[in-house]
Amino acid sequence: xxxxxxxxxxxxxxxxxxxxxxxxxxxxxxxxxxxxxxxxxxxxxxxxxxxxxxxxxxxxxxxxxxxxxxxxxxxxxxxxxxxxxxxxxxxxxxxxxxxxxxxxxxxxxxxxxxxxxxxxxxxxxxxxxxxxxxxxxxxxxxxxxxxxxxxxxxxxxxxxxxxxxxxxxxxxxxxxxxxxxxxxxxxxxxxxxxxxxxxxxxxxxxxxxxxxxxxxxxxxxxxxxxxxxxxxxxxxxxxxxxxxxxxxxxxxxxxxxxxxxxxxxxxxxxxxxxxxxxxxxxxxxxxxxxxxxxxxxxxxxxxxxxxxxxxxxxxxxxxxxxxxxxxxxxxxxxxxxxxxxxxxxxxxxxxxxxxxxxxxxxxxxxxxxxxxxxxxxxxxxxxxxxxxxxxxxxxxxxxxxxxxxxxxxxxxxxxxxxxxxxxxxxxxxxxxxxxxxxxxxxxxxxxxxxxxxxxxxxxxxxxxxxxxxxxxxxxxxxxxxxxxxxxxxxxxxxxxxxxxxxxxxxxxxxxxxxxxxxxxxxxxxxxxxxxxxxxxxxxxxxxxxxxxxxxxxxxxxxxxxxxxxxxxxxxxxxxxxxxxxxxxxxxxxxxxxxxxxxxxxxxxxxxxxxxxxxxxxxxxxxx
Length: 623
Ligand code: SAT
Ligand code: MN
Description:
Elements: H1 9-22, E1 26-29, H2 34-46, E2 50-52, E3 62-64, E4 78-80, H3 85-88, H4 97-108, E5 116-124, E6 133-139, H5 142-151, E7 153-154, H6 156-162, E8 169-174, E9 199-203, E10 208-212, H7 217-220, H8 223-239, E11 242-244, E12 246-252, E13 258-264, H9 271-275, E14 285-290, E15 294-298, E16 304-307, E17 312-316, H10 322-331, E18 337-339, E19 342-344, E20 349-350, E21 362-364, E22 370-372, E23 391-395, E24 412-420, E25 430-432, H11 436-444, E26 447-449, E27 462-464, H12 477-493, E28 502-506, H13 526-536, E29 542-544, E30 549-551, H14 564-570, H15 575-589, H16 599-620
Helix pairs in contact: 2-5, 11-12, 11-16, 15-16
């Protein structure tokens, strides 16, 4: 299809205007077909960027090695350019939108010389779903086109839904590496290697995304974090729905009853694993709707319905094994794009903690350097064979655990929200909020502990990642908390308070004083999911406490071999720990939001603090 054939006048003009600025050798409108996907990979292999893996071991799959400057999201170069700085809030980098547009327009001038400008019309969510949204990305990277084919729904069907005047989020992207006449990439990942010259920019007031200089992941596949979270969070605020960094899972109990949960977890908490978990308890079943993002709207029946806006998984490879995530391993067994993994002599990919050592005597690491082949899958810190953020891009439809209704345009009704982080102490295995506002409070204090070894922060201090949205909220986080509170108020005003999802906080990561995990995790986490399931059916399986509703003794059957004392300590109130937690929130965390922090969250703090003081007095005999 040619630009001239575009029926949407605004889209046509937008493409033409950018082509004038970027000066590509040609413009192609993507149609989303398998043929187009194959063509992209052919181009990428012939320019030396992609390596076809051994078809006998990993059919239809490819490996890419990115530039060492281009291996992860560039958070320091990610901007929320709202008109007013205060609307970006304390957690975002802000720049004046007019100045940023001027700077970037200069950078975009001629940036696609010698390359093709691909125009990718894509739908986030099943095409035509009333919860879905359309974006159009222009890019000069065939790698981006191929990845967008997997991660979103691309092509003519999207243009059909867009019609002549439908709404789309314009997404401008360039890798910033024009080619001179006769020049080719010659196997070198094209991007702007100077991190300070990369820009991942969002204009929330006009719902626009401009990205320059990076070809990798969330910086370049603009449907994912940029559209489906940062811009969508703004759209959701403006239109009264929720765009969240949440997995969506389907859970079926032994009686065949089905519920859907959505869960937000900061990175490195096993979100993808949880969404594909295989329960250890007989009769229970978990299936996947999504592993990263949930878009949710209230429908007429008063319930909240969720879709997974994505069509694929862009998952972290290292640590993925048959043990940690059997379903993910099956999903990526074919038709998968790998980035920054190791390459074995057999022509397969390899990474640390894949579950087996490297076959053969040597291996190429993610930089393409020859390295002795490790006999086990244990890595050496700092000398990884796969980059720690090496990724797979794989179609969700290939996941053995995918629920048949994962593409239902109506979405699935959510019964429970889960929040969680890595917390070695204080936070119980599972805790149900006492009210919606208390649930928002729990979401707001989500975070993970930092070990002194990892970063220059005192060991044990908590890095808050509210709702796991810290790098993904396109506006002031205080206003975002308020949006969540208003969602609850609106449901109550409409007489649907009882239909709101119940809110839970889970923690799989409690440790003993010897630094050993107390809870086995993985498939055993289904025991907690089962408790939540029963809670949603109003089972009397809980005890009211100062911090929320905790499991009644005996209401969660402990995993084999778990000491009952450990079980009860995982499910009890750590009074002193919570007193310290409340003090930290009050003095070191909430104040950054100033007047934008909803007052009811401070009231929530006061109530919990009062309850804890009473408990403290009882425990110390100081009544
Ligand atoms: O690179 S992405 O932003 O898509 C993945 C991530 O960082 O979570
Ligand atoms: Mn994510």
